[in-house]
UniProtKB/TrEMBL annotation:
<feature type="transmembrane region" description="Helical">
    <location>
        <begin position="138"/>
        <end position="161"/>
    </location>
</feature>
<keyword id="KW-0472">Membrane</keyword>
<feature type="transmembrane region" description="Helical">
    <location>
        <begin position="276"/>
        <end position="293"/>
    </location>
</feature>
<keyword id="KW-0067">ATP-binding</keyword>
<keyword id="KW-0812">Transmembrane</keyword>
<feature type="domain" description="ABC transporter">
    <location>
        <begin position="347"/>
        <end position="593"/>
    </location>
</feature>
<protein>
    <submittedName>
        <fullName>ATP-binding cassette subfamily B protein</fullName>
    </submittedName>
</protein>
<feature type="domain" description="ABC transmembrane type-1">
    <location>
        <begin position="147"/>
        <end position="311"/>
    </location>
</feature>
<feature type="transmembrane region" description="Helical">
    <location>
        <begin position="250"/>
        <end position="270"/>
    </location>
</feature>
<dbReference type="InterPro" id="IPR003593">
    <property type="entry name" value="AAA+_ATPase"/>
</dbReference>
<dbReference type="GO" id="GO:0005886">
    <property type="term" value="C:plasma membrane"/>
</dbReference>
<feature type="transmembrane region" description="Helical">
    <location>
        <begin position="24"/>
        <end position="44"/>
    </location>
</feature>
<dbReference type="GO" id="GO:0015421">
    <property type="term" value="F:ABC-type oligopeptide transporter activity"/>
</dbReference>
<dbReference type="InterPro" id="IPR003439">
    <property type="entry name" value="ABC_transporter-like_ATP-bd"/>
</dbReference>
<keyword id="KW-0547">Nucleotide-binding</keyword>
<feature type="transmembrane region" description="Helical">
    <location>
        <begin position="167"/>
        <end position="185"/>
    </location>
</feature>
<dbReference type="InterPro" id="IPR011527">
    <property type="entry name" value="ABC1_TM_dom"/>
</dbReference>
Amino acid sequence: MGVLTGVRNLSRALRLLVSTSVRVAPWQALLCLGETGGVILGLLQPLYLAWFVAGAAGHDTQQMALAAGAFVAQIGLGRALVWLGMNARFGQLERVGYEFDARIAELTSSVPTIDHLHDPHYLDQLQIMREERGSLGLALNTLLNNLNGLAGVVGVVALAATADPRMLLVAVAGVPGVLAGPLLARWQGRAEAAGAEPGRLAAHLLQVGTSPAGGGEVRVFGLADPLRGRLAAAAHAWWKPKVGLAVRESVVNVAVQVIFFGVAGAVLAWLVRDAVAGAVTVAALTLALLLIGRLQGVSGTLRDIIHNVAAMSRTAGRFLWLVDETARIRAAQHGTGTPPDVPAHGLVLDRVGYRYPGHDTPALEEVSLVLPAGGVVALVGENGAGKSTLVNLISGMLRPTTGTIGIDGHDLAGIDPVAWRSRLAGAFQDHARLEFTLGRSVGIGDLAKRDDEAAIRRALHEGAAEAVLTSVPHGLQTQLGVTWPDGVDLSGGQWQRLAIARGMMRLMPLVRVLDEPTAALDAATEHELFDQYTRAARSGRDTGTITILVTHRFSTVAAADQVVVLDHGRVVEQGTHAELINRGGHYSDLYELQARGYR
């Protein structure tokens, strides 16, 4: 079963590489075979040399002239074919590599949810693909090298058999080296898998220690030495499997060389004895001597071919795995329906639960809620309570592992996720810092109006971000980000205001999510912003917009129609602010605890 699976995987990998090469540039792919033709012609060199030596020994000048002419012609034609094939190959590698890079980007960005980005196995596969960036394009190069090598192996063995059948014993002596190929390939695959996770950790630690974002904390808290220690340990764990692989490869290589040269020496001694006795011709002995080095290379070539085929199959296999995994994820998200234009009733969550991939404890469990159309709902709770996970489930970024989420009686699983998200709006705590012009950075919150200056200014007003506009030199045309010519940098609070304004671009969304929207803002701006939210929520009541506010600051939720209190992934309380305060439960305790800090 394992062999059949390996053959099927190899067959898929070969079809992938060949079909991609032919698709991107058919004639270029055909010209790549010129190199193989040059390799085949090069195999005839020992034969022509043997003819020349035999002619010299027999004083046959005509044979010597023909052998020399054929030798020179072979060199000229062979080099021309190799030059033609190599030039075609270089161009094809660039085209095929670009095609695969573009396809990977398309695959990873086309998945409508982000569950897979929390899956350690998925992330490990992506890490290996990052480490071998460009290897898919080079897989075509490997395929062509293998084709050239195989042509060389067949030609050398055929010439050896014509020189003397006993030379096949020398070829057989290379079999242990060939058999070592699959073993070395398995070792390499295990080494790559073992180094993937520590490689991700090393890359993360390196980024933490060298990026400006973490520079202040690293220096203030004296984290440089601990980070270096952990980075060294992670790098050691990353490279240890590779070093062990190199040691084992060296031992195997020495062993197979000892076997080969022992057999080759014995066969050559046998041939020399027969040549002295006149049983072997000078031409045959000369050809045999010239082929020893090439026969030694046969086992190495075959082993390299097996090794390269395995590596090529793994590399292409990872791409094919990504194709299959993307197809599997998208097939599981089979919704094709359209969301309602205006919600009549609202969102209903029925015993919703979610468990992140690779985790034993659910992030959410048995969450049942009714979020009425036109209502303002506040989600509160301590860090890790599950608020952002719930928001991601409602927005369709994650799919519930248990339970259902529906709107007006229709399960969200049956609605096209792209169509659903096109009817959402909002701002998130982990917002993107989009280094476009200020106007474009806000305007892309509604792509259809990304250049509508009036709509952008309205969103800036509703997002309490007009102060950002007046603080930059060129208004909406100001380039953001100091890494760009004439670009300006913004504070964390200013970036967050723009993210909030971006979330205000869409008018009359079905759901407006505000996930910790004021985390980086001062108290005055927070007050101004929530005034804007109140006005937006009031207009949302008329259009059916469900406003979901996620916050740690309990003072901002008093105006909400409904307060939902989460604790360790469960809903522990829900009701109005006044009801929950009077109830004297978990919400009241948290509210009182936070209120003390302002007294």
